[in-house]
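My main concern about presentation is that the manuscript never shows what a single data entry looks like. An entry of this sort, consisting of the sequence and the corresponding backbone structure tokens, reads as follows:
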Amino acid sequence: MNNQQKGLRSFIFAALLLAITVVFGRIFIIPIPWTHGNVNLCDAGIFIAAMLLGPAYGGIVGGFGGLLLDLISGFTQYAPFSLIAHGLEGIISGWLYRKTSSKAGHWLALALGTVVMVAAYFVADTIMYKIAAGLLGIGTNLLQGIVGAVVAMLVVRSLKQRIKF
């Protein structure tokens, strides 16, 4: 397979992961009234993209996945924040994942991506509402990131055995 075919394959897989990220975010959803947000599984798709395709595609899938999810879910006020929060989550976790080869390093990559996403939503909730909303959102956003990381690690392990990247 030449470089052009590999690039096209990665682009198509990223588009598929973007769609899966939005679907995961819409199907697996738990509303959180005190933060005006929700807990969903979009982070799993973001982490899968970051781990398999790298930081650029992780950022694209994360940013546009979060943005599209907010637009179709009725949380349009969060769309620009999600573009940044989940975009950075994908970029940072993908970059660190590529820099490390140990299992602990891979978990650290996903943990750091989650921390960045949680911090970004803390800022978003504080700007849009009050610091209390930002503080209340930390636990639920952290839970969302952790669940997404666990799901992604399980899926990526299986995908790496079946698909050549």
Q: What stands out?
A: The chain has a mean pLDDT of 93. Residues 3-161 form a domain with the Arp2/3 complex 21 kDa subunit ARPC3 fold (CATH 1.10.1760.20). DSSP finds six helices and two strands in the chain.
